[in-house]
Amino acid sequence: xxxxxxxxxxxxxxxxxxxxxxxxRLWPADCASQKVLSWxxxxxxxxxxxxxxxxxxxxxxxxxxxxxxxxxxVVVTGEVxxxxxxxxxxDHREKGPASLYxxxxxxxxxxxxxxxxxxxxxxxxxxxTDLDRAHALSRAVGEAIEYAPGETKAHTTAAEALTGGKGVxxxxxxxxxxxxxxxxxxxxxxxGYLHADEDGAGHEASHAWAELFVPDLGWVGFDAANxxxxxERYIRLGSGYDAxxxxxxxxxxxxxxxxxxxxxxxxxxxxxxxxxxxx
Length: 279
Description:
By secondary structure, the protein is α+β, with helices and mostly antiparallel strands. 18% of the residues lie in helices and 43% in strands. The protein has 5 helices and 13 strands. The chain has helices at 112-121, 130-144, 158-164, 169-182, 243-246, and strands at residues 2-27, 34-42, 47-53, 59-82, 146-147, 166-167, 187-194, 207-214, 218-222, 234-240, 249-254, 260-270, 275-278. Strands 1, 2, 3, 4, 11, 12 and 13 form a 7-stranded antiparallel β-sheet that branches. Strands 9-8-7-10 form a 4-stranded antiparallel β-sheet. The longest helix is centred in the middle third of the chain and has 15 residues, at 130-144. 39% of the residues are buried. The model is unreliable at 199-204 (pLDDT under 50).
């Protein structure tokens, strides 16, 4: 599938700020499931600094704006050719062992309820394959947390989302990472884009899922929010320990207590004209 993306992020401040510095992780990497045909990140008015590829294989660039500044915009446009590899991440260049992703964060730390969910999901599966065990954990999270936009916040933890029983893709990813860690499975948070299917299922402005490490296969994606593995509708951007670590844009506002207003719009278009707009 050929997917086109236009991702616009606008920041507005209620009073001018002295400056803004951002770390941008907005470039998808070529791998077996996706080939980048074109991609551009526009940061009008910014000074572009160092660019590098980190140990996880994700490209990062630094950008800064000098004030006084009351607004700024980051625009991503690109086209990617995708194929369905049933969620398996192949030919992605990265360094470091999978065991690095056994580390939990404040967002993904398992409480007693998450530990019990993990144990219940794998009950009776001692002889099951590693892949089947991973699928069971993803199903358990999807059943335990109802997809419900507006019920959780950016800082909501996996434990809090499970207690509330509602959340969005960020919460599903955090909870899946948590239950995977309980089972001794390396797991990480992944950001990207998703083209909606024909039944019109809604999604956040950018999408997120989890990757679990399965011996003999490597990293495999699981989207518990949509009860599937990433297929040709998905574009993978980057990964990290949790949503904060994997955020496509991380920034710092300098020299002001101004209130920040954020607007995000994502338009994903499939070849042939079908379009999904998310905001």
